[in-house]
Design a protein that fits this description.
Layout lengths: L1 H75 L1
């Protein structure tokens, strides 16, 4: 009877360890997935910033061209 109790206890502990192992594995996978998502968001944000800088430069160039045109028009008057 004592051996049966020990065997049952060992089996119960193995089951608990298996559940814990699965829980930890799932948690690790979720964490890795979250890291990958965060990396994608950072990359996308960096692209948006680069595009914003390009648009800003284009806008400044247009403003400068507009000022040059205005200056030339004022000189003509």
């Amino acid at each position: 009877m004592d051996k049966q109790k020990k065997d049952k206890e060992a089996e119960r502990r193995r089951a608990e360890l298996e559940i814990l192992k699965k829980t930890l594995t799932d948690s690790l996978n979720e964490s890795l997935n979250a890291d990958e998502e965060a990396d994608k968001m950072i990359e996308e944000g960096n692209k948006m910033v680069e595009e914003g800088h390009k648009a800003f430069k284009m806008g400044n160039n247009l403003i400068e061209k507009g000022h040059k045109i205005k200056s030339k028009n004022l000189e003509k008057k």
